[in-house]
User: Fold this.
Amino acid sequence: MSESSEAASGGVWTRRRFFEQLMAVGGVSLAMAGMDALGFGFASAQTAPPSMPGGAKGTKVVILGAGLAGLTSAYELIKAGYSVQVLEARGFAGGRAQTARKGFEDTDLMGHRQVCEFDEGQYINIGPWRIPYHHQSTLHYVKEFKVPVELFNNDNDASYVYFEKGKGPLAGKPIRKGQIAADARGYTAELMAKVASKGDLDAALSPADRETFLAYLVNEGRLSRSDLSYKGTDGRGFDILPGAGVDPGPGKESPPFAFADVLNSRAWRVLSSVAGWDQQRTMFEPVGGMDMIPKGFVKALPPDAITYNASVERIMQNAKGVKVAYTDAAGKKVEVSGDYLICTIPLSVLKNIQMDASKPFIEAMNGVSYSAVNKIGLQMKTRFWEEKHWIYGGHVYNDIPGIGTISLPSTGWHSQKGVLLGYYAFGGEAAKISALSPADRAKFAVAQGQKIFPEYAENFETAFSKSWHLDGFNLGGWAEWGDEGRKTAYPVLCEPDGRIYLAGEHLSYLTGWQAGAIESAWQQIGKLHARVQQA
Amino acid sequence: MSESSEAASGGVWTRRRFFEQLMAVGGVSLAMAGMDALGFGFASAQTAPPSMPGGAKGTKVVILGAGLAGLTSAYELIKAGYSVQVLEARGFAGGRAQTARKGFEDTDLMGHRQVCEFDEGQYINIGPWRIPYHHQSTLHYVKEFKVPVELFNNDNDASYVYFEKGKGPLAGKPIRKGQIAADARGYTAELMAKVASKGDLDAALSPADRETFLAYLVNEGRLSRSDLSYKGTDGRGFDILPGAGVDPGPGKESPPFAFADVLNSRAWRVLSSVAGWDQQRTMFEPVGGMDMIPKGFVKALPPDAITYNASVERIMQNAKGVKVAYTDAAGKKVEVSGDYLICTIPLSVLKNIQMDASKPFIEAMNGVSYSAVNKIGLQMKTRFWEEKHWIYGGHVYNDIPGIGTISLPSTGWHSQKGVLLGYYAFGGEAAKISALSPADRAKFAVAQGQKIFPEYAENFETAFSKSWHLDGFNLGGWAEWGDEGRKTAYPVLCEPDGRIYLAGEHLSYLTGWQAGAIESAWQQIGKLHARVQQA
Assistant:
């Protein structure tokens, strides 16, 4: 790359201007990260745990929660020489990183108990389920624990979109996403090209740029070069596929939908110039289930590092240390003490636990809300979406209330059965469905999915559903910060209160992602360690 | 799906009109396939081998070539009861479906002999390397032989585009594809939205459609709702990634490139409303190498079905049968005879072999050309494209002469080493590079790749290159038909000449794909079997 080429541009920032801007915004550390960014486009302050040299000076840290934030804290602190005790309310580690497979149990706050009855080898990730390639913190531990990963198909043009609230002939019909992409972009490019070729954009584009713009539009919209019209494209699919010989020979391309029909269907909602940052290709998933990551941590920790079934009742601190009172598996009251505390309990739950902390700190916990989140895995006796519809993974975007996204598995290609995600829904509609019994939730999911796949009901075997807002250890899927909360409450909770450090996805801008939990933990143990070194 | 909804549309064909059209074009069989298509968008005449009931009536078929077409023919004919003998010129089966791994040997027509020195477990598919999800014929055998497959990352927004022949500050710089997509589409949507909001499209769109169109443009281009401007989007990446706490906190989105710079870079050539049909997501590859598919065939065939190292010298036929003269591994002249012949030898090679066939048949072989195709695998001692650049698979599109596509492996995530595809180039530039010695080809590939990845040269260990036009058994990568050839020569070669049937990718509209070879074989053995039944 040429050192001077960027500076020569009027529109693109010069290197110098870019650094000046960075310095103004975030000081030297951001500017340093920016230097990386200039090279290749991305940079991250946190792709690896903090270096913690200098020893632990005999410090003991109590950690509440064995989710990703707690596990990360425990693993790195032990490595740095600390004495660590983790208290976990559940009978297993991983927090929300749960995989439901045969025998997995769950009882929600309404008393609905489920035991997973999937076949051996079948599973659904009822918590986090995908890892974007830029979540290098999560991938750091994937590598550290040699967790095999496979590609997660997060964007499949062959998958359906289904919008029943749209209008016109395409509403309420499963349509391939690629057909909507081809037609919406094709017709738009045609309109644009015709405007541009008439010279109507001369104020915006120089004549030379206009010619290049037209070339781009022809390429992007797959327009006819001669008359700049969109007449369809092989990319939207075939009514008769091309093949051998003279029949089917070249096949028969599918004709485009009418532009007005595409617009009225509102199926274009699934289109975007580029996917949102956290939904981008490439995406990974651990082979065998997301809980392979927490299992990697647990294997790497000393056998007695985590005390399970420990229900925290009170968090205490004074100038010299911290103390936590909890009830153990047998119902016995126990106290543990340490020099510092890292608390990864979700704020939704933590705010109901008595804690010695300053009033602003306690009050800040009310600055966030937690989302209602539903998921359901449906075991199907055949992989009809692959066999009949040729959809290999990816999502079926739709506007069916309470369904949100239907998602097809990115694993087990060509095997007999599969577990698909029957709904992934948030908010009020999710809360409504979660009030049903597990059997009725499955009934609902199957009936709705049937609108899209005629083979749905006849293939359904067994379901496992999860409602995170009905999980007493979480009371919601993830933290949702409003602008005001981010401004006032969030910075308060990011700093320690006395000897108590909070960590978790809720203290990051990657809420709902494992990377948020890990990077928050890295940040807090880094601060704690610096304090120990200075003490 | 509603039966009547499509008929209600003015712009979309009614079912009836659609069928009428199909009947006119292709008769009942196409109309039948079209009925499938109307349900879900795609249909194929050939997703499974022809049913061949009725027995083989003691018929013996000689098959020339143990590539995908020959293997398919042999496997299905044996299943249907035929006696089969396959003659293969190479010492192994698979034809072009070759995987270079440690010890693999290749000597080209210029006398350049290579022995692959990749580490154990490393490989490159020097022939076909990917299977689109709609190549159900290829996937049929993947399933039949239980060949494990994994996703092939054929479209990676995080990968670079590199166009050194463009103009302006972005030319000759690696740029993330997603940034070009966001900016080109974003600015275009802005221009379009501003035109539309001024009412300039009233001839093309009704007022209601215009409002919906604006909503689409805002969504697609990620425009500001208030002033319809494109100011960048998180989807194009960050200069400072979002993370935990308040620093980096929300991070810092990267600013968009200037529109004129994007246009002048010509990097938008990689953008298309939807990928071309044969390049679409989802794409697969066999775990461990493409030759796992031919190996599956060979394992399923009787041990003596294939005679290797058989160099065909003459193909004879008369009214009663066929006879093939070949030279065996020891240089001895041998003749085999049978009732029918299926010849899968590429036309580029076949036209130099003496064959008893009609003059029009022989002449038709001149109606096709074969492309020069180069590939090179470069073993790198670290996976720097993943570790330093966060590019996990996908292609680096570029305009470097002789390089074509650079492609990063979709397998071995997080392992130590990797083999990337250093060039995949066609035509004259490929021919020029293939004239170099293997060592000089590698030198060229490494020097060019270095323009994009600064870690290229220091990581390079060993290479294996293939030039298909310099392979005496192929004389080119695949058949390339012009319009005239398709019209006149192609139909002649699709029909048998006497007792000789040709098969292979060259007799399909899927040239260069394994699916073309398989479907061509299916078609020809289907015809042959029908003839045997009628005889």
Observations:
- Confidence is low (pLDDT under 50) at residues 1-41 of chain A.
- The first helix of chain A runs from residue 15 to 40.
- Chain A has four domains: 1-43, 60-94+292-367+481-534, 99-127+372-470, 177-273.
